[in-house]
Write a structure and sequence with these properties.
The complex is a heterodimer of chains A (371) and B (408). Chain A has 371 residues and is of the alpha/beta class. Chain A contains 9 helices and 28 strands. Chain A folds into 2 domains: 262 residues, Spore Coat Polysaccharide Biosynthesis Protein SpsA, Chain A (Alpha-Beta Complex); 84 residues, 3 Solenoid (UDP N-Acetylglucosamine Acyltransferase, domain 1), CATH 2.160.10.10. With 408 residues, chain B is an alpha/beta fold. Helices cover 18% and strands 27% of the residues of chain B. Chain B is built from 8 helices and 31 strands. In chain B, strands 1, 4, 5, 6, 8, 9, 10, 11 and 12 form a 9-stranded mixed beta sheet that branches. In chain B, a hairpin with a 5-residue loop joins strand 9 and strand 10. Chain B is globular and about 65 Å long. The relative contact order of chain B is 0.12. The chains are: A alpha/beta (371), B alpha/beta (408). At the A-B interface, helix 9, strand 14, strand 15, strand 16 and strand 19 of A face strand 14, strand 15 and strand 16 of B.
């Protein structure tokens, strides 16, 4: 129990506004049975972090429903466990936090009361399998004040708002830019930081006293000359969710066995999620299924190709579903044709409907819609 | 302070289940996997929690390790309670006697103090090897309304089958006047399901009486029920309608699995208001490959299917490689069917490898038996295992090998 975990559930919520109309980014469904927060939480649990706070802001009902007591992540504990922090309003201005700094400020009590030596802060805008145990070990070996997790990557337009780092041979950050230029290869921050708990407390206190508002600029960038800020490289899979198009593309990457193995088949660890006790998936006499990733509880009587089905999806007879993502409890009737469709939870598609989008602009059906 | 329950359940889970052959070499029958993602005991435990019975004693004896671990604190079934919940009750050493459970009645007798601890008015006796969905609260209500001393759940069977069961002969009000164990010429078709509700004081009284009777087999069906009937206690049959199967043999276990598949399956596990709970492990969805064919089957999480699967039940993390062919079979978790291997009409236990080109069993037909391959067995390349065979690893207790590194 060397580190306390903090998860920011909605700092990037505005980027995928279709999927986050009714939920925070952290509870966006991904990969057949997961929510984005599952990857963040599971990585922490797999790294031995057992005291975790999740900072919420708006529309966090689905997040609270998903996390429950935390028992599915082994985080229902007397000592530690997971806690969701609803927004901490300012009693004078009655406004909610506007940035990472103010969000952390709402947790100062939680941070002060813990006895862990470090704080690990992460976001929910990507699917990854970062080993934080290793990050903290490197942090200690280098006697760092702050460690930033980064990956060497080509900067795609969606990564433009991420920080890029200049790192010397000893792994120390010597310079950083708040945004990155598309098309170059850079050391991209993945929005995961390890900081000594007491140092974080002091830094936040001081920054807010000086009217600071941006964590990256006013704490990281500002302190490069004064603190030992080091970088820890992550080389595993990283699926960044920042638009409906890359949400679609990154889900589809799970049809690739290598990516699945990297994320889900690591030795001695697992990605945990809320247990729903669904029955196994049933394939009917006329089912035709090719290259699909399918969760429990589905009943398939038609044809499904290159698709991802979440729990409890039903595919009717003579229905063809291709290149689509159907979330929990989507029901299709008979003689339906779907291509490049994202159906949110509880969508009903009636007989003989024919819906088609394309890879870059998938056809999105909102939660509880009936077509 | 809480100190009383209205009704508690005692679940008999100690039997060896030797008729399940290789499947119960190292695990107890209630822990045998069933229906792709369950274990047999999930159905009874889920019935308890869905019937608002929140105190369950599970009597274990034979190979209890996996069963104990699986039940754990009862969390998956909502049976982790501050007062009550699920408790494992193994045989124990006492001051004046030390005994294994010598029969179903003796097992309960040895745990009378557990029952007394909760001071229930009624005790429900269950078996851990049946597949069914039943609302015990309805049976309890019936028991109370009839003011019975003992209520026995019964199932209508055909006259041919009746001679394989304990048969209850009742009057028009379902009052039992005669009980016949496996009668040659059955007078009725009401078969006992091995599910009983007793008034607690009657149960305790007859268990003590039976314990003192020399030569008794200490069995509910053979001793307690006939004695109670002979003593004129009020015994009532509770007619159960619905699916029920004793999965004590390879054939019945196989056919109960098959009853889950099809467009209109005999046994429905998809009822959202009667969920079958089980201990879930963190596993990903399953993957169906590009050239795979999956027809009329059940598939559980983490499985990877690249070959052909027809009329089969596929457990968690099973791998079916390209060109492999599985038909009319049940495959438990973590097994691998390698390229070109064929599996017909078989039950394949956990962590089995069927290597390239091997053939297990024969196409289903009358007079062809079900092949069984036990845990951890590796079937060599191109090997042929005949129908009805029972293959198990020679020494299950030292799976890591017989070589001992220490010098004695």
């Amino acid at each position: 129990m060397r580190a306390l975990g903090i998860i920011f559930s909605d700092l990037h919520t505005d980027t995928v506004d279709e999927l986050t109309r009714y939920r925070t980014l952290a509870s966006v469904p991904f990969g057949g049975r997961y929510r984005l927060v599952d990857f963040a939480l599971s990585n922490m649990v797999n790294s031995g972090i057992t005291r975790v706070g999740i900072i919420a802001k708006r529309n966090y009902q689905s997040l609270m429903d998903h996390i429950g007591s935390g028992k599915d992540w082994d985080l229902s504990r007397r000592n530690g466990g997971v806690t969701i922090f609803p927004p901490f309003g300012n009693h004078r201005s009655d406004s909610l936090y506007a940035n990472r700094l103010e969000a952390i400020k709402g947790l100062m009590g939680f941070i002060a009361k813990a006895n862990e030596e470090y704080v690990l802060m992460i976001d929910c805008d990507s699917v990854n399998v970062i080993d934080y145990h290793k990050v903290i070990q490197e942090h200690e070996e280098r006697n760092a004040d702050i460690t930033v997790v980064y990956r060497k990557a080509e900067v795609t337009p969606d990564l433009h708002p991420h920080m890029s780092l200049t790192i010397n041979e000893a792994g120390r950050v010597t310079a950083a830019a708040l945004t990155s230029d598309s098309g170059t290869t850079a050391n991209m921050s993945v929005n995961a930081w390890v900081i000594k708990r007491k140092l974080l407390y002091n830094l936040i206190d001081e920054a807010l006293a000086h009217g600071a508002s941006n964590f990256e600029r006013d704490i990281i960038l500002h302190n490069i000359p004064f603190l030992r800020i080091c970088a820890s490289e992550y080389e595993g899979p990283y699926l960044h969710i920042s638009s409906l198009a890359n949400y679609f593309a990154n889900n589809m990457k799970l049809l690739n066995p290598e990516i699945r193995a990297q994320i889900f088949e690591q030795k001695n660890q697992a990605i945990y999620t809320k247990v729903r006790d669904s029955a196994p998936t049933k394939y009917g006499k006329d089912a035709v299924v090719e290259r699909c990733y399918i969760a429990d509880g589905c009943v398939i009587e038609g044809t499904v190709r290159n698709s991802i089905l979440f729990r409890g999806v039903k595919i009717g007879k003579n229905t063809v579903v291709e290149n689509s993502i159907l979330m929990q409890d989507t029901i299709t009737g008979e003689h339906v044709y779907l291509n490049c469709v994202i159906a949110d939870k509880n969508v009903t598609i009636r007989d003989r409907r024919n819906l088609s989008g394309c890879e870059t602009i998938p056809y999105y059906l909102g939660k509880n819609v009936m077509v | 302070m809480y100190n009383k329950k209205k009704c508690i359940a005692m679940l008999l889970a100690g039997g060896q289940g030797s008729r399940l052959k290789a499947l119960t070499t190292t695990i107890a029958k209630p822990a045998v996997p069933f229906g792709a993602k369950y274990r047999i005991i999930d159905f009874t435990l889920s019935n308890c929690t869905n019937s608002n019975i929140d105190t369950v004693g599970v009597l274990t004896q034979y190979q209890p390790l996996l069963l104990n671990e699986y039940i754990g604190n009862g969390l998956p079934w909502d049976l982790d309670r501050n007062f009550g919940g699920v408790h494992i009750l193994p045989p124990y050493q006492a001051k004046n006697r030390t005994d294994w459970y010598k029969g179903t009645a003796n097992a309960i007798y040895q745990n009378l103090h557990f029952i007394e601890r909760y001071d229930p008015e009624y005790v429900l006796i269950l078996s851990g090897d049946h597949i069914y969905k039943m609302d015990y609260s309805e049976m309890l209500q019936y028991h109370i309304e009839k003011d019975a001393d003992c209520t026995i759940a019964t199932l209508e069977v055909s006259l041919d089958e009746a001679s394989r069961f304990g048969i209850m002969n009742t009057d028009d009000n379902n009052i039992i006047y005669e009980f016949e164990e496996k009668p040659a010429k059955p007078k009725s078709t009401k078969a006992s399901m091995g599910i009983y509700i007793f008034k607690t004081e009657k149960l305790a009284c007859y268990l003590k009486k039976d314990e003192a009777t020399e030569g008794s087999q200490k069995d509910f069906g053979k001793n307690i029920i006939p004695t109670m009937l002979a003593c004129g206690e009020k015994m009532v049959a509770f007619p159960f309608k619905g699916y029920w199967k004793d999965v004590g043999t390879i054939e019945s276990l196989w056919s109960a699995n098959m009853d889950l598949i099809g467009d209109d399956p005999k046994f429905d596990i998809y009822d959202p208001y009667w969920r079958i709970h089980s201990r879930n492990i963190g596993i990903q969805p399953h993957f169906i490959g590009e050239h795979a064919q999956v027809v009329n089957s059940l598939v559980s999480g983490g499985a990877t299917i690249e070959g052909t699967v027809i009329n089969s039940v596929i457990g968690p993390r099973v791998k079916i490689e390209k060109g492999a062919y599985v038909k009319d079979s049940v495959i438990f978790s973590n097994s691998v069917i390698h390229e070109g291997a064929k599996v017909f009409y078989s039950i394949i236990d956990e962590e089995v490898h069927i290597e390239k080109g091997a053939t297990i069993g024969a196409e289903k037909a009358e007079s062809v038996g079900i092949a069984v391959v036990g845990r951890h067995v590796v079937i060599k390349e191109k090997a042929i295992i005949p129908a009805g065979a029972n293959i198990e690893e020679p020494d299950q207790n030292s799976r890591k090998g017989n070589k001992c590194s220490c010098e004695l």
